[in-house]
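hi!! sorry for the late reply, been swamped w classes. u asked for the two structures so here they r. pasted raw, havent cleaned anything up. first the sequence of the first protein and right below it the tokens
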Amino acid sequence: MIVVIDTSSLLSLVRYYLPFDNNNVLFDFIKLKIENEEIIVLDKVFQESLYTAKGIVIEKLDYLKLKKNQVNTTDLLPFPKFFNQLEHNFINGSAKNRLSTVEFENRKDAFLESADAKLLLYALKNKSDNVIIVSEETESNNDNKAFKKIPAICKFLNLDILTLPELFEKYPEISFEFR
């Protein structure tokens, strides 16, 4: 199993889990999984994390600064079928109709360069390696973005997606105790 993790999950990890990790068990576990490339942090996710919540993810998980702990997505390009799905299946409701052609193309280009798109493309490219996307996003659209959220697109593409708590259940060596 290879896990590719979203910014939202890294943020939840440092905000809601690591403060209770008094003995650094979870911190060390995640670090080891990233160093062993069992948990993948894409360069786009790293870049997004620099600017999310004042960079708290990078501050707490400073080992992510090492290029060896980031997967380069420069060569991760969409294929023709993905472009078609983007325009017809991943678009939110009437966004394509309410946007001018230029606005739609700009939003499409921005999406294709986003961490979300790179997560999806990475998972599709490596699907045979049992890749799981981890994200705290929900399917419901509540942010007025032109494109659907990661869970909705994963459902359409038949990609595996979990939240952090669901991921932690997959690792029996992690146990949580609250005192």
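now the second protein. again sequence first, tokens right under
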Amino acid sequence: MKIGNIELGPRPVMLAPMEDVTDRSFRLLCKEQGADMVYTEFVSADALIRNIAATTRKLSIDDAERPTAIQIYGRDTESMVEAAKIVEAAHPDLLDINFGCPVKKVAGKGAGAGMLRDIPKMLEITRAVVRAVNIPVTVKTRLGWDCNSIIIPELAEQLQDCGIVALTVHGRTRSQMYTGSADWSVIARVKENPRLQIPVIGNGDITTPEQVREAFDRYGVDGVMVGRGSIGAPWIFRSLKAAAAGVESEEPTVAEKFQIIRRQIRESIDRIDEYRGILHIRRHLAASPLFKGIPHFRDTRIAMLRAESFDELDAILTKVETEILPALADNDN
């Protein structure tokens, strides 16, 4: 698959943009584990224009993680164009426009998925951003605002006409948020349109090798984007990428997974500071499959998510790795 001048090879598997998740360290980890392309956290156009430090930091890209996309969102054409030019100066491989974020603070103000209620404005912004920059521009959006307005099959053509070079479709409506199941049959309808010449990337509920194979073989997408399934588990890309290529992958050992988690913690601390770095990583710890299904784990889990220093957190992880999990394995045997 090719996006603009970026060659991603056949059946690419990508890391989705996620607020407070896809920082530079996490992107690099996912890249090392097999992700073909990674996306930054989404960036507010208004905050970027105002030069808010926390926002401008999101534009920092490590060459080792490339190809990397920076994603922006906003509701005003002029500010989106200005933000796009700022992003271009940061030298990402492509610029992605977020027309899919469903959260109230974004969509409720008319940005993100809120644009699904104002298609003329969405198209105006897309055309203006494409004209304003010299890097490839893509769009990520949803099926429609709600189940009564599944507009993506027609909208995809309109966005293509605006000049975008790829389209990512999350298989839910805005009203669904992240509930229910992603409807990949609608994504397939987008891909089946003979007038659509740009790559179609499917997104939604991809967590297993079987789902990756189905996305390509049954629904015919050009690429797959993985979001929440990677939180606390960047190693997921190893098996998903192997499945896309039709080969078997070797599951990382428990020790390797703990090594990755510890690296995330250290790099989060180095990037910010110890207290805030650990606060940032708690979302990954809470979601990590490393700790799923451990019986009588509640007190340890609470302690892990309340730890305020690396030493305190590392001691808990060491106990889980060297005492709790081996004891479970012995009981199973």
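hope this helps!! also noticed smth abt the second:
The chain has a mean pLDDT of 95.
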